[in-house]
Specification:
It is a single chain. The chain contains 16 helices and 13 strands. It has 418 residues and is an alpha/beta fold. The chain folds into 2 domains: 246 residues, Glycogen Phosphorylase B (Rossmann fold, 3-Layer(aba) Sandwich); 152 residues, Glycogen Phosphorylase B (Rossmann fold, 3-Layer(aba) Sandwich), CATH 3.40.50.2000. The strands form 2 sheets. A 7-stranded parallel beta sheet has the order 3-2-1-4-5-6-7, with helices on both faces. Strands 10-9-8-11-12-13 form a 6-stranded parallel beta sheet, sandwiched between helices. α5 packs parallel to α8. The chain is globular. The two termini are 19 Å apart.
């Protein structure tokens, strides 16, 4: 039996996708200890895991990238928030290790201090990423701008030039990252992107061809498909009373001021022959007055709704997007920021839905985009099949077990002594 300590950022969108891997590890007889956001501790305990909250100072530092005016500005603001949190999450992980004495560490890709701390412990460790990795590749466009893949020499030249410019901008934050790493006794790095692939194993919770196929993945990266999980909830009895095609509309669980999407969808679909369910998540549901064919709530489990859905309208968070596609449901994405520009483009390129820039968001345009997305069911089913073939939690658990087996015996002892 192996004891795993999983350390997450304060985001449900990073915790929920890795839960199926926790469950698979426990099914195989391993112990899983979780450090996560305070609101989810009881949920993790109800699943049978040992769980405790991360340092409250981490949750108090909100990510305010939604205030930025450009994608580059948003990325820099996001990195600043993550590095501010890193001063707390690194020491917090070390305290958890001291208390829990794990054999293996599993660390969220958005906990930059915890990743640095994990390097110093001598223990086997892995990271996981539930969103598209912003690491450079000769086969894919640079991350963050929502560009389509290059098909011709001019496009490849575009990618090389933009990649160089963008990473120079990103790396303006490198002194902040290296300052955090120095505090924790980890070596300085030459660039920010290399921090994301320092772990011996990266569980990448997606799969090709939704992720653009690449010939130059780092050896540590394992594409295992998305983790699909909802917290336990009461059955949605009212779903049985709906007999028209169902459209699910979702806002981000991490506040980004995307209530305009919910309001526009309610207006756009009010006279359509569909039923509409809107989950506002980070937005107050009382802000909206639904028409007769719609229901507005803050949260509900998406799984039962997706079983009935004809289309999902969303901001392009990887969680809801991949949940929809894993169910074979096409998606209409209206990206507001973060990685969502890229998610929207991937959906479009995969032929699994439509993309509507937020600057063009109006009821008439959204209505047409939803109609077009509903015609993309074959593309969504193709992606669902690819996700299933990636192996899911079983493949993730296999990789984690292999990580421990492949470590040199003398290194395992050193980790346990710290």
């Amino acid at each position: 039996m192996t004891r795993y300590l999983a350390y997450t950022s304060p985001a449900r969108g990073h915790l929920y996708p890795i839960v199926p891997t926790f469950l698979e590890l426990r099914r195989r007889g391993h112990e899983v200890v979780v450090r996560t956001l305070a609101s989810e501790v009881d949920v993790m305990r109800s699943l049978g895991f040992e769980a405790a909250a991360i340092d409250p100072a981490i949750e108090r530092r909100e990510i305010s990238d939604w205030r930025a005016k450009t994608p580059i500005g948003a990325l820099r603001e996001g990195l600043k928030g993550f590095f501010d949190r890193a001063h707390y999450d690194g020491p917090d992980l070390l305290r958890a290790i001291e208390k829990e004495r794990p054999d293996v560490l599993l660390v969220d890709i958005n906990t930059w201090g915890a990743m640095a701390a994990a390097e110093t412990t001598g223990r086997p460790w892995a990271t996981w990423s539930p969103y598209f990795l912003p690491i450079p590749s000769r086969d894919a466009p640079p991350f963050g701008l929502g560009l389509p893949p290059a098909r011709r020499p001019f496009g490849r030249l575009r990618d090389r030039l933009l990649r160089s410019v963008l990473f120079k901008i990103y790396n303006r934050s490198l002194p902040d990252l290296n300052a955090v790493r120095a505090e924790l006794g980890a070596p300085a790095l030459p660039d920010i992107q290399s921090a994301m692939v320092r772990a011996p194993l990266m569980l990448y919770l997606t799969a090709e061809p939704f992720e653009y196929p690449r010939s130059d993945w780092p050896e540590s990266v394992r594409l295992v498909g998305p983790g699909i999980w909802d917290p336990p909830a009461e059955p949605l009895a009212w779903l049985d009373g709906l007999d028209r095609p169902l459209v699910l509309v979702t806002c981000s669980t991490e506040f980004q001021n995307d209530g305009k999407l919910a309001q526009t969808a309610l207006e756009a679909l009010a006279d359509e022959d569909v039923d509409v369910v809107v989950t506002t998540a980070g937005v107050d549901p009382s802000n909206f007055t639904p028409p007769p064919n719609a229901r507005v709530v803050k949260f509900l489990p998406h799984g039962p709704v997706l079983e009935r859905a004809a289309c999902v309208v969303c901001h392009g968070g990887m969680g809801i997007t991949q949940k929809a596609l894993a169910s074979g449901v096409p998606v209409c994405v209206v990206p507001f920021g973060r990685d969502q520009l890229d998610v929207a483009r991937h959906v479009e390129v995969a032929g699994a839905g439509t993309r509507l820039p937020v600057a063009r968001l109006r009821p008439d345009r959204l209505r047409e985009a939803v109609r077009a997305a509903r015609s993309k069911k074959a593309g969504a089913k193709r992606i669902a099949a690819a996700f299933g073939a990636a192996g899911g939690p079983s493949a993730a658990a296999d990789s984690l077990e292999g990580l421990l087996r492949n470590q040199k015996p003398e290194e395992i002892g050193k980790g346990a002594e710290r």
